[in-house]
Amino acid sequence: MSTQVRSYKANKVLERLTKKVNRQIAGTMLACVHCGQCTDSCHYVQTNPGDHTFVPAWKADRVRKLFKRHMDWTGRVIPWWVKAGSVYTDEELEELKDIVFGKCTNCRRCTLNCPMGVDFATMNRMARGLLVSVGIMPEGVAVVSKDQWEIGNQMGVLKEDYLDTLEWMEEELRSDLDDPTVEIPVDKEDCEVVYTINPREAKYDPRTISDAAKIFHVAGENWTMPSEGWDMTNFGLFSGDDDLGGAVARRVYEAVVRLRGKKLVISECGHGYRSTRCEGPNWGGVDLPFEAESSVLTMLRYIKEGRIKVDPSKNDFSVTFHDSCNNARSCGLFEEPRELLNLVTSDFREMYPNRAENYCCTGGGGAMSMSEYAPMRLKSAKVKADQLAATGAEYVVTSCHNCVDGLNDLIKHYKLPMKVTQLVNLVADALVIEPAKASVVVEKKPEAAPAVDETPTVAAALPLEGRKILVIDDEPDIRTFLSTVLEDNGASVLTAGNGDEGMEKARAERPDLITLDLNMPGRDGGQIYSAIRADEDLKDIPVVIITGKPELRKLIYDKDVRRPEGYLDKPVKEDTLLTNVRKVLEVGADDVN
Amino acid sequence: MATVTLGGKDVEIDEDGFIQDPNEWNEDVALDLAKTEGVEEMGEDHWKLVHYLRDYYLKFGIAPMIRKLCKENGFSLKYVYEMFPSGPAKGACKVAGLPKPTGCV
Questions:
Q1: Would residue B6 count as lying in a domain?
Q2: Quick one: which of A294, A152, A297, A161 has its CA closest to A234?
Q3: What does the pLDDT read at residue A457?
Q4: What is the ipTM, given to two decimal places?
Q5: A590: how many CB neighbours lie within 10 A of its CB?
Q6: Does residue B105 lie in a domain region?
Q7: Is the distance from CB of A162 to CB of A226 less than 8 angstroms?
Q8: Which burial class, exposed, middle or buried, applies to A345 when counting CB atoms under 10 A from its CB (0-12, 13-18, 19+)?
């Protein structure tokens, strides 16, 4: 075997391998016991169950064999036992490319599910870096990396075009707010906030720039955007090229230092956040002399500190949240976006699994720039599509541009009735802007309306006055809670402890709305739901599902019947319940789904 | 890479559905591409935008900034998104026969 001639590139790859294996990667190389825990955690495996070449442990072994053969003593002594192996030809390197770039999005879900702590995605990224060092990579990755090296941002946006775009957004904002003093300050020194973005925002969709500027303006922030070093994305993360990663990250850090900014704020981009805040200092070999945070935290802080006011009823549609792998799994950013989302929308539905356990948008790890793997990517997106559909939400919100595009692609492919948006858009839309008092703001406040002097005569203004609601739930405590809240708000409430009793009462009383538990003895909520929808007399009554087991959503959403008008998770809060019930009753059933 | 029939002739497209050779493009090809991007009818402004994108690409080899596109055609950003719901990068560029934009899109 050792007599076989090795190509120049294969030699270089092996040479570099020995330099790139650090302790973390060595652990990953050695610790795998092939137990199979990672298998089902991967969305590629779930959608291609018969194909072992998608299994994380199998993919890892394509790289692991090189380590065993060239770096570990076991591979020299008992190579047949530890499955050590080498690479000789450029074709073999191309095959490896199709695995490390095409069959993994580096989402790290398998890492989280490994009892041995094997971090396959980190090893996969290293393998990508080895191939990139000899010029073997998908064309899309090469083009973008070149632009980041040479022009300073991943879409080759020229400085004058970037500045012209900021100026344009400033003009738009001025006319939108009818306020000629609004600014998007560029290169202003000594600011509290230096705001950096994804070039995609400047090149194709600058609405997020004007929305962010609007929020900074209303919050009275002292902020600026740099004229250079404004691209916080980093293809070094995707290509595995630490040199590129360091160079790109340093460019951003230098901008903050040059402007003497106090805080670097990173717009909603998962890989940008991870690269700039978490990995960049290591790649670039620098300590950050300033704070760096995601704009999600900035916006949340503004609301908590009372610097901006928001009205969730302005975003009157159901939303779910998709955790970006880089934000949630790799950087632990998952509670804050939910907190913020709940402040600016009124009908939030959790997606299952979620947070660090969420599935990749399927476009991660730079996959959106690798057209050659698009069909495989979209096929593997089935698991994500099912997960999205099960929420029944109208909008999926995400704090990552890459996820926005990945999700849009799969939503189109699987024809889901869903739109994608980001927190910055929702916060900007929910803003209550004080100076323009005369306009809309006053009417909507419910507590402002009955401003009559006497308090006891509230009855007339109760929001659910004259509504008949049927509560079906097997737990007496929940029945009491729900009926108390609804009755306190003027509804007349009937209760039922199981599905069949519920059906009977529904037939006899014809309520205006039914709340339905899913997990009940006897016929479960899913069966009762189908029965209601199939019943000529009852089928038009709006139903709000209230369940403590949201993962049972499938019982409802997989059925070929009209979707429920509302869906709430237990424990349910008083105001959430009221908002949702009112929305269903007042907005009307047809608009909801 | 695959070959499909667009505007009555065989055209090579990439895996994301973007045509490979800009010389193969004509208005009939564009009409068929538009259907894949949720554009039912190509109005006068659709054509204006698509021709602008194509001319710009043939001249400079890249897609224009959305700023240029709006300024030079007198379109608002909102209007561009109304015309091409999947956005200027994917929707409009595809219909205009440009290759897939590079980067996170």
A1: yes
A2: A152
A3: 43
A4: 0.94
A5: 9
A6: no
A7: no
A8: buried
A374 near B15, Cβ under 8 Å? yes
- Residue B7 contacts A where some CB pair is shorter than 8 Å: no
Across the A:B interface, residue pairs with CB atoms under 8 Å apart total: 83
Query: Which residue among A205, A233, A369 sits closest to B102, beta carbon to beta carbon?
Result: A369
Asked if residue B27 is part of any domain, the answer here is: yes
How many domains does the structure of chain B reveal? 1
The CATH number linked to B24 is 1.10.10.370
Question: Which burial class, exposed, middle or buried, applies to A309 when counting CB atoms under 10 A from its CB (0-12, 13-18, 19+)?
Answer: middle
B79/A contact by beta carbon, under 8 A: no
Q: pTM of this prediction? A: 0.82
**Residue B105: its chain A contacts at CB < 8 A?**
200, 204, 368, 405
* pLDDT surpassing 80 at residue A198: yes
Look up residue A500 and give its amino acid: D
3-state secondary structure of A544: strand
- B-chain residues near A203 (CB < 8 A): 63, 65-66, 89, 101
Domains for chain A: give ranges and CATH numbers: 8-137 (1.10.1060), 149-304 (no CATH), 309-430 (3.40.50), 464-592 (3.40.50.2300)
Pairwise CB contact (< 8 Å): B67 & A198: no
B/e letters for B33-63, b = 16+ CB within 10 Å, e = fewer, are bbebbebeebeeebeebbebbbebbeeeebb
Tell me the pLDDT tens digit for each residue of B42-93: 999 999 999 999 999 999 999 999 999 999 999 999 999 999 999 998 899 9
Please say whether the beta carbons of B53 and B69 come within 8 A.
yes
Domain that holds residue B59: 2-95
Q: What is the pLDDT of residues A306-343, one digit of tens each?
A: 999 999 999 999 999 999 999 999 999 999 999 999 99
Interchain contact A200–B (C-beta under 8 A): yes
